[in-house]
Amino acid sequence: MEEENQIKLHGMWGSTFTKRVELALKLKGIPYEYIEEDLSNKSQLVLKYNPVHKKVPVLVHNGKPIIESLIILEYIDETWKNAPRLLPDDPYERAKVLFWASFLHQQLFEDMGRVITSDGEAQEKATKDLFEKLTILEEGMKEFFPGGTPSINGENMGLLDILMYALFGPYKAHEEVLEMKTIDPERNPLLFSWVMALTELPVVKESTPPHEKLVALVQFIRENALQSCVA
Amino acid sequence: MAAISLQTATMAEEVKLFGTWASPFSRRIEVALKLKGVQFEYIEENLSNKSPALLKYNPVHKKIPVLVHNGKPVAESLVILEYIDETWKHNPILPADPYEKAMARFWAKYMDDKLWPAATKVVVSKGEEQKAVIEEIQEQLKTLESELKEKKFFGGESLGFVDIAANIIVFLLVAQEALGLMEILTEEKFPVLHEWYQRLVDDAVFKECVPPRERHLGFFKARFGSSTASK
Predict the structure, then answer these.
(1) Cβ contact (<8 Å) for B83 and A94?
(2) Which of A62, A130, A135, B169 has its CA 20 to 30 A from that of B6?
(3) What's the rounded Cα separation, in Å, for the pair A150 and A197?
(4) Do B105 and A79 count as a contact with CB atoms less than 8 A apart?
(5) SS3 (DSSP) at A40
(6) Sheet of A58-61: strands edge to edge?
(7) What's the rounded Cα separation, in Å, for the pair B182 and A151?
(8) Strands B41-44 and B4-5
(9) What is the spatial distance between Cα A56 and Cα A47, in angstroms, rounded to a whole number?
(10) ipTM for the predicted complex
């Protein structure tokens, strides 16, 4: 089979990590074949390509696998240098973006996960942590959006936009399941307007699963986690 | 009182590194700067009494290491390493090819995401739990051994990004010795990795950037000395 410039993405429709890679490929206009993986029954291909972590997403470019969503995003940006550039060329600007990418990808993501998968006191603490981090992020992002309201389109979306969307794009589904606001226009006006701007973009809309499906997924994750906590 | 070891900054550049003598993350930056012959001023931080400068340069996490280049701060050790590589381009530590780069980033992250948490767990756990963690670490080392294969270093002929990130192993083995744990990286079990390790600690630049041995052993004994492996 011809493997010349063949791009395959093994992913899972509800996975925020998979979403990020899909969005990047779409933004750059890179044609790819998508393979939906059933995480309880991973295909032989995923196990072959990702023996270390056995997870999705896996991007396979001309038969060579790349894993870990942030690493995949950097690989995409370095291999397809057309607009939009996901990361700045200047080393210092790039380091700043990577710093906040790590903050979004690790810290905020973990906090969000804890809020979804806990209840009672544990959830209260996790929520407090999340809100504290959101305040820090709001402050930090002022530098990136000096004009106040983010003005984003398909041509200038970058790594932080992708991560922000992947994390908070489903905010309505989170709100419905958790019965509380995660991103709040009053508490985090800049972040909220940023997420609004992102979710309105056509390229983002077409990557967004239907609301009911997202609600069901978040519900499933929450119930699963809460059940397994019961002694 | 912070001990300052001054190395003359060149007229064109001012490079400062805020770190601590016993942190592998801090020591990584020293390796990279020395490999590239970059003059820098080192500032030893007291983590229970952080300097105003550190708090100013890393307000979000208040952690070391922080690299300050001409007044501009960069935080997160792997981000700093990439910044250094992009700014001082001789003796590159990352490969040029995007795929090889992605692989290097993956394995460096592996050190932080897998090896580091296990290493921090091993020094505080006892008895059966400690044994289990050591087994986990040995599984990780097995994975690393099969990745290294016949290469002299993870970076190829010379030290690279992954070898620098792997300095965690040095810290792990000093801890092992200090606490009287069973030998973790035996020549028997890990013939390839064992040889690589000898090359790593013999490397002219790398060996300047490990904590002084006696002091380091004393550090682990004092901090974690009450936990023992055998029960």
Answers:
(1) yes
(2) B169
(3) 7
(4) no
(5) coil
(6) A33-36, A7-11, A58-61, A64-67
(7) 58
(8) antiparallel
(9) 10
(10) 0.90
